[in-house]
Amino acid sequence: MANNAVVQVSGVSKSFPLEKNNVRVLDNVSLTVNRGDFLSIMGPSGSGKSTLLYLIGGLDKVCAGQILLNGKNIWDMNDRGQSVMRRREVGLVFQFYNLIPNLNVVDNILMPAILDGKKPKSLKKDLDVILDITGLADRKKHIPCELSGGQQQRVAIARALITNPDVILADEPIGNLDSAAGTQVLKLLQRVNSEKKKTIIMVTHNIEATAYGNRVINIKDGKIIESA
């Protein structure tokens, strides 16, 4: 694995059973993501782009090939090692914000770190910085139903940052937002990439969204067909 590579995908294939047949979603995909990249993955519905993202995050298992994160093969780890990797090295942002409805902004943000055994008091400095960069300092006591969709997605991004991961994986992060809120979220991800030096891998169907990153790949029928 190259010194600057944070993610290395090598010959990865993935199939799912459908009735009596297996449907191949990814077909021998190889990809290197360097530290500091803001990579956009594009492709039509069903092309395999979200599946690739979930495999990189260790949320699903490859059928063939390997994925290295910081030089470590995800599937060589035991269950505990995979859980620690997902909590500490990867931050996840989904199209649906997946916030806990009865917890306020701060408690939603802190949840991954608390699950990792950290004490809230030890995170105060990091939390204050994250609240500032995400523009949530004046919303920290609000619960999700009191927030707009864009604000909820910013909470999800803040939650992804709290464990100081190397990589943030974002699956259609503006898919449920209007254009103004979507632009704010993309600008925030761009800022996180440039100021916090986080590697971002974003799945999107919106070509305008790719302008906020520095690399684009296109996937069709489970294969990378174009990379820039």
Structure description:
The chain has helices at 49-56, 79-88, 105-115, 124-133, 149-161, 179-195; strands at residues 5-18, 21-34, 38-42, 64-69, 72-73, 90-93, 167-171, 199-203, 215-220, 223-227. The strands form 2 sheets. A 6-stranded mixed sheet has the order 6-7-8-3-9-10, with helices on both faces. A 4-stranded antiparallel sheet has the order 2-1-4-5, covered by helices on one side. Helix 5 runs parallel beside helix 6. The relative contact order is 0.20. The protein is of the alpha/beta class and 228 residues long. It contains 6 helices and 10 strands, in the order βββαββαβαααβαβββ.
Task: Please give a handful of descriptors for the protein shown.
228 residues, 30% helix, 4-stranded antiparallel β-sheet, alpha/beta
Largest sheet: 6 strands, mixed
Fraction of helical residues: 25-40%
Supply Rg.
17 Å
**Termini gap:** 20 Å
- Given helix and strand content, the structural type is alpha/beta
Low-confidence stretches are: none
Main sheet strand line-up: 6-7-8-3-9-10
- Oligomeric state of this protein: single chain
Task: Please provide the count of β strands.
Answer: 10
How confident is the prediction overall: mean pLDDT? 90
> How would the global form be characterised?
globular
Order of helices and strands: EEEHEEHEHHHEHEEE
SS strand fraction: 25-35%
Count of alpha/pi helices: 6
